[in-house]
Amino acid sequence: MEGKMIKISAPGKVILHGEHSVLYGKTALAVSLGLRSTVIIKVLAPTDNPKIHVYFPNMDLDETLPLKPIIEQLFTTSISRKCSWNEPTKIDHESHLKKVDGVLHMIRPGFDDLLSNQRNSLRCFMYAFGGIFGNSGLNISDFSIKLTSDLTVGAGTGSSASFSVCICAAMLQLVKLKDSENVGDFSVEEKNIVSTWAYNCEKITHGAPSGVDNTTCTHGSLVSFKKGEDPLLLPSPELRVLLVDSRVGRETSRLVAAVKVLHGRNVAAVDHIMEAMNHVALKAAELLKKLSNTKSKEDIEAIYKHLHELWEMNHCLLASLGVSHPVLETIRSAARDHGLACKLTGAGGGGNAIVLIPPSTEESTVDALKTKLMNSGFRVTDTLVGGKGVEIHN
After folding, report:
1. Which residues form the GHMP kinase N-terminal domain (predicted)?
2. I need a labelling partner for 204 at 20 to 30 A (CA). Which of 100, 225, 356, 377 fits?
């Protein structure tokens, strides 16, 4: 086993349509993002005092943790086992998390002095390690785990879900490697297991997540979701977009509260706006399904033109709720000057905008827009949305 390596990546996500309206019972669409997180596990030579080397450079976290107390506190025996690694819904989340917190305080002096994202990343890792590998009945010795990411923390691009999916998928692969050395691609059933464990990890960071982020980062492509319902996987082709970071921080809770106040004063008007956004999301899903099933250049061009209209419409509906920002309007204006559709993504008030790049767009047009935006101080990433979910890299 010594020298064996597991390498896995998972995408981020962006909201395509349905920001804010999803909180009012309407349909929203999330899509996987071409920016990814990557985790590498290396099985090391066994030692008398086995350890785990945890290196998460994006979190500025570099820790060496003793393995023995983790096994003693978090691993279950065949007698005490109440759930298996492949039954994440059966775990007592609060009880398991309490054990995780207890062991981290035991083995990592000054744990409470770490930054919140550092603490939560260690909690998520330990939760998945104890919950998945710790319920496998398999033995483990020294190993290292390194996780890097293209995603910016707190930018609304699913960084925590991408992290959680990577960690949980890596733990599942470690079980498979130790059990049979068969580390082939994930089956649909295994992806569902990864997604559910990642959802549990997301509860550590977000309290009451919707489930859409972990679903999108696990399965990729397009995900439709409504409040109170399970996320639904939908067909979608990859779309080329420019992800534009406005460099203006966003306060999601403040924006949600402001929309709630606006709704309270103008119930009928805001309800109509939310319903209009619902129609935009449903029509976009219909168009993306058509786009994934056609090769006709004329049909593709017509669909992109229709998507262009929906992106513009969706942004203006959001702006009417007061969740745009002068910098987002500056980005939109630049895109419009180049004939391209642009909308905010996420809560708004800053954060990111996405620009749709139809395949017929001249590359010189894209380059000119990127140059203009970067010269204006924005961070621009030319990427794809709607691509693969979690992947194993041999």
Report:
1. 137-220
2. 225
DSSP string, 291-335: HHT---HHHHHHHHHHHHHHHHHHHHHHHHTT---HHHHHHHHHH
Say which amino acid occupies 18: G
Paired sense of beta strands 239-245 and 379-385, if any: antiparallel
Instruction: Render 77-137 in DSSP notation, one character per residue.
Output: -TTT--S-TT-GGGS-HHHHHHHHHHHHHHHSTTGGGS-HHHHHHHHHHHHHHHHTGGGTT
Tokens of 301: 């061009």
Burial of 192 (0-12, 13-18, 19+ CB in 10 A): middle
Q: Is 19 exposed, middle or buried (0-12, 13-18, 19+ CB in 10 A)?
A: buried
- Six token digits for residue 125: 């890792």
Q: Are strands 28-43 and 51-56 parallel, antiparallel or unpaired?
A: unpaired
Interval 329-381: pLDDT, tens: 999 999 999 999 999 999 899 999 999 999 999 999 999 999 999 999 999 99
- Residues with Cβ within 8 Å of 333's Cβ and at least 6 positions away in sequence, in order, are none
Q: CA-CA distance, 340 to 77, in Å (whole number)? A: 59
Residue pair 212/22 in contact by the 8 Å Cβ criterion: no
Q: What is the pLDDT of residue 1?
A: 61
